[in-house]
Amino acid sequence: MTATLTDLSKYASEHWQDFSDLWRFKTIAAQHLGIQETIDWLAKTFKQLGAKTVEVWNDQGGNPVIYAEFAGNSDKTVLFYNHYDTQPADPVDQWDSDPFEPSVRDGKIFVRGAEDDKGELLFRLVLLKYYQEHGGLPVNAKFYVEGEEEIGSSHVVKYTQAHRDQLTADAVIWEGGAKNAAGQLSITGGLRGIACLKLSVSSAKTDLHSSLASYAESAPWRLVKALNSLRDDDDNHIKVAGIYDDVTPLTDEERSLIGKLNFDPQTIIQNAGLTRPLLSKQPLIDLANEPTINIEGITAGYQDEGVKTVTPRYASAKLDFRLAPSQDPTRITGLVQKQLEQNGFSDVKAEYLVGQPGFRSDVNHPFIKLVCDTAAEVYGENGYEYVLNSYGAGPAYAFGRLLKLPVLSIGLGYAGAHVHGANENIRLNDAYQALQHLDLVLSRFAE
User: Fold this and answer.
1) H or E segment to which residue 36 belongs
2) pLDDT per residue over 141-163, tens digit each?
3) Cβ atoms within 10 Å of 381's Cβ, excluding its own
4) What CA–CA distance (Å, rounded) separates 86 from 104?
5) Cβ contact 388:288 at 8 Å
6) Cα(176)–Cα(191) distance, rounded to whole angstroms?
7) Helix (H) or strand (E) segment spanning residue 12
8) Coiled coil located at which positions (predicted)?
9) Backbone angles phi, psi at 127, to 5 degrees
10) How far apart are CA 226 and CA 229, in angstroms?
11) Is this model's pTM higher than 0.85 or not?
């Protein structure tokens, strides 16, 4: 039996603070802060909520993974993925309240990790507590909670492979989700891939007097010309031979789903304050299934106050390539290096930094239909959209590809959540609505 929105809203409003200490831990993987305290709290909390198994995995290195398993009232099993690490709160002076003390204002909770991702996990804990007091879970539930998502999830594949037998399930519900700018819940079936590279070049043994620019080419100019050779400015096409070879074309059904998405170019331009036209004539298609090349930053020469008239000998740039879910990120460095050499830039060296493959769930999987049908009941027929894959990256492939499961993101966020920024927040009514949807998903799945 499913709970009503009124029942769950009342229950959640009375009990979310039972778990609010999760937000008070400064769990910042990038700074190696708060890891053990958070692990200890989660292990204790899962046990208190009736988990039949709670384990702390640290056999594959990196920050530990918390695994918890709950018995349900059916033979169906749902695997939940969450992460317990957050971004730093800096700059703290931009927050209107303590970033690690949940503050409720105007129906919103303001705190670091409000949505990404502690808030999503916290309200799933609230639902577990509700089930514990109201007849048990509809399905078997497994929780995989890692602590390195904000720094690249570099150990997720190792842990998933090592504990594959324990992670068997029928479907995966991903870390969370959000309503779009139009107020529709975005149900997302995967994530893009990513490859991050560094390009570097030296043009001399030492920096030279800038008067010698009459005959000596500087490293920054050399790098700028090399970068310019990799992309066609007219249509945003990447001029790296072979980079499109492993892009799986969209099916007619996938294109149809993309065509239903809410996307207004003028609103995007206005909200972001863009000063240049959009690069793409088909932005939704490109967001879902085309690789990108982005310059994250360029480092060269003198950057301090005043001037220093030198011709710099060294320059570097960091790039990221957002990839279609079918693409292999480990190919990118070799392709870029080969292209640079073919373009006459053999002195510019490409170095692989980090990357992740993407993953996209089969749009015809019955679990996807169930999640969408229940969303229509909770949010209304036009109150949700189905997104083939997130435009960002994440380790969904470790579950989708290795475990051969559909991976779906649903959750409690919204477009004004300020994820990763100051005053990160969630709206309480969104959290209550997300709980009702999740309860309906699990109850129907059990049937």
Assistant:
1) helix 35-48
2) 999 999 999 998 989 999 999 99
3) 8
4) 20
5) yes
6) 12
7) helix 5-15
8) none
9) -65, -35
10) 5
11) yes
